[in-house]
Structure formats: C-alpha cells, structure tokens
Design a protein that fits this description.
By secondary structure, the protein is an alpha+beta fold. The chain contains ten helices and 24 strands. The longest helix is centred in the middle third of the chain and has 56 residues, at about 215-270. The two termini are about 50 Å apart.
Length: about 525
C-alpha cells in the first residue's frame, strides 16, 4: 500500500467443488473478504463461504463486485446478505460493505483502507521473535525443485535452514520464494512463501510448526504416524466389539424366544391355548459393517454389484485441487453407475498410474493441470487407458458425467413402424422338395421392412417376435412393403400363421440414459 503496509490476500476458488479449500482459507486468515457479484447476487457458494467465516469466527468485509455494470443494484445484495446473517453498516450492522469494480479497479483502494482500518480496530499483531508457526496452503511436486509447499506464516519468523513439521511430513528449509518468485532468506508473520526441502508432501491445511533439530522433527512425525496407526487399530477393535455385543444380544434374544415358545407349546398341550404357537423366526446375524443385518448387507452388496463401476486415478498439480476433484467426483449421482477413486496424487501422470488404472475394468485417469510424457502416453495407449486432461473444473465434471453416461446401456424404446393383416396362407415348394409356409398379407399402416424385427399377434395374444426370412411382392424380393401393398412373408422359426393375424413391423430407438 502507499502507506507501506502490506496485505496478504489468500484467494480461494468459487466453484462448489472447492468447499474444503474455502473452509481452510477461512480458518487461516485474520479477515474474510466476501466477494459477491452484483449481477449474480448471493449464490450457494456465497452462503457456504459465509458459514465457513462464521464457523471460524473471523471478521468479514463484503466486497460487492461488478458495480460498474448497467442496471445492478448493490442495495439488493446487502438485503439478500441480511437474510443470511450478514448485516452491513447501511442496514444498522457492523460489517463494512465496499462497492468495487475489479475490471476497472474502482473501489479497490477503499477496500484496502477498510481492511487496514479493521485490522487496527482488532489490533491484529503477531510475535516475530519466536519459532515459526503457519499453515500449509498448497503442496505440489515441481520438476527440478521436488516437493514444494506454499505456507502462510502466522507467527514467528522462518529462515532458510530451519526445521519445520507439517502433519506427517518434515522439512529442512532449502529455499523460500515469495508470490513473485523472488528468493527470500526469511519470512515473518502474514508472509506467504513457497518452501522446498520437504521429505514428503504435506497436506493442504496442515499446521506448520518449527522444530529445534532434525531429530525432534523426525520424532514428532514418527509419533504422529504411530498415533494414526493406533487410531486405525482402535477403530478396528471397536468394530469387533460392536459385532460381539450384537451377536451376544442376538443369542440372548433367540434363547428368550425359544423359552417363550416352549412355554406356549406346553400351554397348548395342557389346554391353556387354542392354537399351536408359531415357531420363533430366526434372527439375522449381524454383519461386520456396523450393525446392519447380514440379510441387509447381502442385499446392499448385491445392489452394489449390479451397478457398473468406473475406476478413476486422479492426478493434479497441487494437493488442494486433487482433494477438490476427488470430492466432486464422489458427489456425482451414483444410483446407476459409481465412480471408484482408487488413487490420488500430486504430480504428472506416471506409468504406475496407468498400470493401476488398467488393472481395473475400463479405468481412466483424470489429470488436472498436469500432463503425461510421451512414454506414459504410449503405455496408456497399449493398456487402453484413457487419460482425460483438464484445466477447468467445470469442463472436468461435464466430461466425466458424459463418460459415465457412455458406460451405461442406452434405454431401448420399441416403436411400431407399420402393420399388416394376413389375408391368405399358402405353401410353396423350395429347392430340394422343401416346403415353406407363406402368409399373403396387405400393409394397413406405415410399412413393413425385411431388415427389422416383427411381431405376430392373434387377437391380444402374442405368437411370435423375431426375424423375416423372406419378403416378396409377386415373385420379386423386396426390402420394404408400404401402405396398401400386398406381399408374401415367411418368418425364421415360425409357421403357425392364420388368416386375420396381425403382423407388426418393429424398430428400436436407443436413448442415452441420464445420471441419477
């Protein structure tokens, strides 16, 4: 800014698929700038962003964009926001609303001043002389640089050579660069830097903490990995205990029912009951997946097995994008066909990705902002694995939906293209003294074609559906008989025709299914 102050903006995508990224953004920042387009109004993503900011208890400034467009009404936006708990100063609240035009740059300076003013009111400060703390914004693999993570420093000062831990990854800071790609030696509070030197790729959203030395960092990482394993083991043990309790309760219930049945039988034989009691119904055994009965689980498994499944490997440029794509694909309608995300990863598409996708049934690779080299493409062609590359999330979801639809069997609709009435039955002698039954008929509606299927009806009863073996007019073979035309016809595997039978000529139309 002109005053020498610096504002660090953390921009998050607006598409619905990036919900988790917006939630992390709200938790990582000191102030949320809620951008609302004046011509679109409050969209579902706007409501979601409001909720993320409220959940994180972060102060909000509203920036109403596109105010330079003709016919827009910013006051309407403020009224809409009021319905969702955002009360601007114009309407008696304490939330600032700034009208801007990103295209023309108008109002941007006022927005900056509003941010600085709110920061001063909130007295936003951070220590600089303590071990660094921050948040991983993104992580990726870059050629020539290895594992790279974008980190927003929240407190303290991070220097090249420092040891930091994020999740189950640790790093000795080899280099740091700012948002313009300039190399920096240290980064203080509110600095966003790209850090290289990671032993593993940290996950977006992981908290970054500085360690005293490599030994401490490795110990923290090993401890976290061990805790994660123990947590998984505890979950497995708890599932086993739940199953044992259900089995015990089922056995107790069966014993109680059996005792009650024996008592009822005794009462019947001693004249205390008028009818013989029904034996107790057998109890369904609990399944291994959390309380469902075995019958219900079997029914669910059978339903799942009947659905086609498309195995998908997802590769992307950064971890947040990979997470968003995986989440979006899992939310696609799955009542007719399912997407099974078998692997996700950051970096270019590799041969191992192709092999993994090829091991499934017609697996595909979804690559977002990354490419496959020529050798990998050759392997994909050999393994018959499609690599679908995208740079826009809208196009990705659209094309994946088209892929899923193409994997569904189309709906086949039967149409009657014509009808004929059998007027006379006669036999003819073929070569080799073979005889054939011919139905002399007249077309009453539409046309009858030799290539299509036919149905023979006698009253309301269907006698035959199949193919025509011969279609003639006088002695000439024809491919089609039209309305009013007489013809002789014989069928493949059916000769039981009578005068008055109706012949329907059928055609079939295939309509692509829709996801549901």
């Amino acid at each position: 800014l002109k005053s020498g102050q610096v504002i660090t903006f953390l921009d998050t995508p607006g598409h619905a698929a990036f919900s988790a990224m917006r939630a992390r953004g709200a938790n990582a920042t000191d102030i949320v700038v809620l951008v609302v387009a004046a011509d679109d109004g409050v969209m579902p993503q706007t409501k979601e962003a409001i909720q993320h900011a409220l959940d994180a208890d972060v102060p909000i400034i509203v920036a109403i964009n596109k105010c330079d467009k003709h016919g827009v009404d910013p006051s309407r936006i403020k009224e809409d926001l009021l319905k969702h708990g955002i009360q601007t100063e114009d309407l008696g609240g304490d939330i600032q609303a700034v009208e801007i035009s990103a295209l023309k740059g108008t109002g941007v300076e006022e927005l900056s001043e509003s941010i600085v003013t709110l920061a001063e009111i909130l007295d936003l400060r951070a220590e600089v002389d303590i071990p660094a703390q921050g948040t991983v914004i993104e992580s990726q693999i870059e050629r020539g640089r290895g594992n790279v993570a974008s980190v927003l420093i929240k407190r303290g000062t991070l220097k090249v050579g420092d040891i930091i831990v994020a999740g189950t990854a640790w790093c000795k800071v080899r280099s740091m660069s700012d948002d313009r790609g300039n190399s920096v030696k240290e980064a203080g509070p509110a600095s966003a830097v790209e850090i290289t030197g990671w032993k593993e790729i940290p996950q977006a959203g992981d908290m970054v903490l500085q360690a005293e030395n490599e030994g401490q960092a490795k110990g923290v990482v090993d401890s976290r990995i061990e805790k994660r394993k123990n947590k998984a083991k505890l979950a497995a043990v708890e599932a086993m205990n739940v199953q044992r309790r259900e089995t015990h309760e089922r056995d107790e219930s069966e014993r109680f029912d059996e005792r009650a049945h024996r008592k009822a039988v005794w009462e019947f034989h001693n004249g205390l009951r008028d009818s013989y009691p029904e034996p107790p119904a057998p109890k369904a055994a609990p399944s291994k997946d959390g309380g469902k009965t075995a019958a219900a689980a079997a029914e669910g498994a059978a339903g799942t097995q009947q659905l086609p499944v498309v195995p998908v490997v997802i590769k992307g440029d950064v971890s947040g994008t990979v997470e968003a794509v995986a989440s979006a694909l899992k939310q696609l309608p799955d009542k007719k066909i399912k997407v099974n995300v078998i692997s996700t990863g950051v970096g270019p598409v590799s041969e191992s990705d192709v092999v993994l996708a090829g091991s499934g049934n017609q697996g595909v690779i979804v690559a977002f902002n990354v490419k496959a080299d020529k050798r990998t493409q050759a392997v994909a062609k050999r393994e018959k694995v499609d690599i679908m590359s995208f740079r826009v999330i809208y196009k990705l979801l659209e094309d994946v939906e088209k892929l899923l639809v193409s994997r569904l069997e189309p709906i086949r609709i039967e149409e009657i293209q014509g009808e004929a009435v059998v007027q006379e039955i006669f036999e003819i002698t073929l070569k080799g003294n073979n005889r054939a039954t011919i139905a002399g008929s007249r077309v009453t509606v539409g046309s009858v074609t030799k290539a299509g299927k036919v149905r023979v009806l006698r009253g309301d009863k269907e006698l035959f559906t199949g193919d025509i073996s011969s279609l003639k007019n006088i002695k000439h073979d024809i491919n089609e008989a039209t309305k009013g035309q007489e013809f002789g016809v014989s069928f493949v595997g059916f000769e039981d025709m009578k005068e008055g039978d109706v012949i329907q000529s059928l055609r079939y139309k295939e309509i692509p299914q829709k996801l549901a």
